[in-house]
Design goal:
heterodimer; A: about 200 residues; alpha+beta; Aminopeptidase; eight-stranded mixed beta sheet; 7 helices; 8 strands; disordered C terminus; B: alpha+beta; about 35% strand; binds coenzyme A
């Protein structure tokens, strides 16, 4: 596998590793309860955000199963950080991966997550040769559900009251997609000539 | 809730009781078979492995902490014939979750024994064990098993495709579940 080339560009975004100077931007969304749900390290309080950022800064490659790649979503033009997306390589023999995402609500509804996740799905299937990708989301989060449908993910699981989350019964959905189910995008045409010939 | 039920549990035609050393041949009669092991995590067991499993089960008769399991032998009330086994695992103490399992001797399939015995475990789980949700899972090809879940009033919650390898092939798995309220309305129609 060739080494990963970062940053990744999408229509409106640059996806790049996190930097120390992102702290203020990350603070704006990382402590929100809706974001808490699926982050690796809970950040109930603002003080916890620096530690969470330190972890995300270190997640820049997938060398071994269990590792996560996390990329900041930065808007082209004004360089505002609007959220992040991540890909976890959960299992090597069965080629399993998991996507996660978080967005600053001030910037949601503009299609940024669709762009960023599409790029990450491409990366997972084409570059990392993942066989199946899954995403967990809150059963009450209509935004996430719509987003998954837009990406063409299948609903695989709908758990009701299977766990407690912040003192309340939880409802969780799992969406998934196999490599062969991912619609090939226009990326082939976008490849520079030399990359195709080689 | 911590639980040490009084055994046997009695149903219309069956008795559910802890395993004893005398059950080794009875267990080997079904756990040793290829057709029975087909969808089980374990391969067919040797007689010796059955004896070891039964030793372990001597202590699997109650709930004290998370992960504990109750594994019971199912025998006919009429003549004490061992027809299979059922299990209930305490998966989460905080969220009061349990998982059901079952394995029956093929000679005793098709008579509703599995349904009858498992219903008794549901009653134990939602009754004295005070669980909130009980789930079960099986391979998508294991139709007798998911049909049993539907007979029990469980809902299909998940259908995973190629999420793992199982015995060298892509696995496809169903999860079924039933909530306490659903169980209550089934029992008080
Ligand atoms: C899963 C398993 C327990 C199901 O066994 P089963 O015999 O289909 O289930 P039951 O004992 O509840 O019997 C139900 C059948 O008996 C019939 N029946 C007859 N009398 C009945 C009665 N009094 N009550 C209910 N059903 C009755 C039902 O109509 C049903 O038949 P059908 O499937 O033709 O409709 C069995 O296939 C098995 O042990 N498999 C191997 C181990 C395994 O795979 N375990 C699960 C791993 S996930």
């Amino acid at each position: 596998m060739s080494s990963l080339r970062l940053p990744i560009e999408t229509g409106h975004l640059v996806l790049r590793p996190f930097e120390r100077s992102d702290l203020d931007a990350v603070r704006r969304y990382h402590t929100l309860p809706s974001v808490q749900r699926y982050v690796e390290r809970p950040t109930r309080y603002e003080e916890d955000v620096a530690a969470a950022l330190a972890i995300m800064r270190s997640q820049v490659e997938l060398h071994r199963p269990g590792e996560t790649l996390t990329l900041a979503m930065v808007r082209k033009g004004d360089a505002v950080l609007v959220g992040h997306v991540s890909l976890k390589w959960s299992d090597a023999t069965a080629g399993q991966g998991e996507l996660r995402f978080a967005i600053d609500p001030a910037h949601s509804g503009k299609g940024y997550l669709t762009q960023a996740l599409t790029a990450l799905v491409d990366l997972a299937f084409d570059h990392f040769r993942i066989h199946r990708l899954m995403v967990r989301c809150d059963g009450r989060s209509h935004h996430s559900i719509k987003l998954m449908q837009k990406l063409g993910m299948r609903l695989e699981a709908h758990y009701r009251e299977h766990a407690l989350f912040q003192g309340e019964w939880d409802e969780e959905l799992h969406f998934a997609m196999l490599d062969r189910e991912w619609r090939p995008t226009a990326k082939v045409q976008e490849l520079p000539m030399r990359a195709r010939v080689a | 809730m911590a639980l040490h039920p009084d055994f046997p549990l009695q149903t219309e035609r069956l008795r559910l009781r802890p395993f004893t050393r005398g059950d080794v041949d009875g267990v080997f009669a079904y756990r040793g078979r290829d057709d029975v092991a087909r969808y089980l995590f374990d391969p067919p067991l040797s007689r010796h492995e059955c004896a070891l499993a039964i030793q372990q089960r001597a202590s699997q008769t109650g709930f004290l902490e998370e992960g504990d399991r109750i594994v019971l032998a199912v025998e006919t009330a009429a003549n004490g014939h061992l027809v299979g086994e059922v299990s209930l695992i305490w998966r989460s103490v905080e969220a009061r979750q349990g998982e059901l399992g079952w394995i029956f001797h093929p000679d005793h399939h098709g008579r509703g024994y599995a349904t009858e015995a498992t219903n008794a475990l549901l009653d134990l789980g939602f009754g004295p064990a005070d669980l909130h949700r009980i789930f079960a899972r099986c391979g998508a090809q294991n139709e007798p098993s998911w049909r049993l879940m539907e007979r029990l009033g469980m809902r299909r919650e998940a259908h995973f495709r190629e999420h793992a390898l199982f015995k060298g092939r892509w696995d496809e798995e169903f999860y079924y579940a039933i909530l306490r309220d659903e169980w209550l309305s089934l029992r008080h129609v």
